[in-house]
């Protein structure tokens, strides 16, 4: 992910997870809708603990981060 997009996405993820601390589905929806508006459509978001993934994504359009210890967030774009 380009640096500017990565920083914005990380800030968005932190904001969503703090706002919806007990509802990962609402946090993921907020992140997805914001990313679609800001960077074009087809963004996907998974938030949770203890999951694995194998995805197809556009080059330089993937972010995988941890928040607050064990909460993982995966954000990616595919066509």
Automatic annotation (TrEMBL):
Its main subcellular localisation, reduced to a broad class, is cytoplasm
Pfam family example for this protein? Dynein_light
User: Which CDD domains does the UniProt record give?
Assistant: DLC-like_DNAL4
**Could you provide one GO biological process annotation from this protein's UniProt record?**
microtubule-based process
Transmembrane regions = none
Q: Which UniProt keywords apply?
A: Cell projection, Cilium, Cytoplasm, Cytoskeleton, Dynein, Microtubule, Motor protein
Q: Where in the cell is it found?
A: Cytoplasm, Cytoskeleton, Cilium axoneme
A single GO cellular-component term from the record reads: microtubule
* Family that this chain belongs to: Belongs to the dynein light chain family.
- Protein task: Force generating protein of respiratory cilia. Produces force towards the minus ends of microtubules. Dynein has ATPase activity.
Tell me the subunit arrangement: Consists of at least two heavy chains and a number of intermediate and light chains.
What this protein is called in its record is Dynein light chain
